[in-house]
Specification:
The chain is α+β, with helices and mostly antiparallel strands. The chain has a single domain (about 10-250), classed as Creatinase/methionine aminopeptidase superfamily (Creatine Amidinohydrolase), CATH 3.90.230. It is built from four helices and 15 strands. Strand 4 and strand 5 form a beta hairpin. Helix 1 (about 10-30) crosses helix 2 and helix 3 packs antiparallel against helix 4 (about 145-160). The longest helix has 21 residues, at about 10-30. The protein starts with 8 loop residues before the first helix and ends in an 11-residue tail after the last strand. About 45% of the residues are buried.
Length: about 260
Amino acid sequence: MEKIIIKTPEQIEGIRKSSKLAGQTLEYITQFVKEGVSTEFLDQKIEAYMRENGAIPATLGYSGYPKSSCISLNEVVCHGIPSENIILKNGDILNIDVTTILDGYFGDTSKMYTIGEVSPIALELIEVTKHCLDLGIQQVKPGNQFGNIGFAIGKYIKSRGFSVVYEFCGHGVGIKFHEEPQIDHSSRRNTGPYMKPGMTFTIEPMINEGRPGTVVDKVDKWTARTVDNKLSAQFEHTILITETGYEVLTDVTGEYLVC
């Protein structure tokens, strides 16, 4: 198994800049996320924004993936492929997931959006999923074990009646798109590698309204849907472990303080 990369100050600064642009990309696309718009249109806007700012989309061509972002609607858990045939409509919820490569460094983030009036259960699912991300981030500090991220998330989800997707996980990121460690969002307490300053990785819990399982589309080989066609939600940030805690590198709204 590959070792977890401890980034140098120079590498951290590069990852920080790329992560900031990834976060800014999600803020930029917000103005276009509305009823009647195709996910292909959103993807084109995302790619153009990245390139105008000196970056390229990491997903484009990655293991054959055909688009510059992943846009996952309603029952799609992750890896939804943008298409001119997928038109946003009132009541939809969607996740937009972007990864930038800027000067060779990667930044990875995603968030949820809503179209018009969405159902109460959809709003609750989104709120709970965001809280799962926050609970995971609160576990980040030198000396803690990575398993405690998933333990905190799993414990909370049990109290809310939803389920944690176990087939997809967070991951190290920064020098490469996917690095060690694997960040499970449901795990046993005090397990996994120990956290050290200079590690960068994503926390990206995917929470399902119903059962936790997923099924990947047999035709496009990417789109992962819930097994029961119920809703799914996801939030994601790229995190740096500091000497005293964490820095949320993809936060561009000032929601998280460096600690």
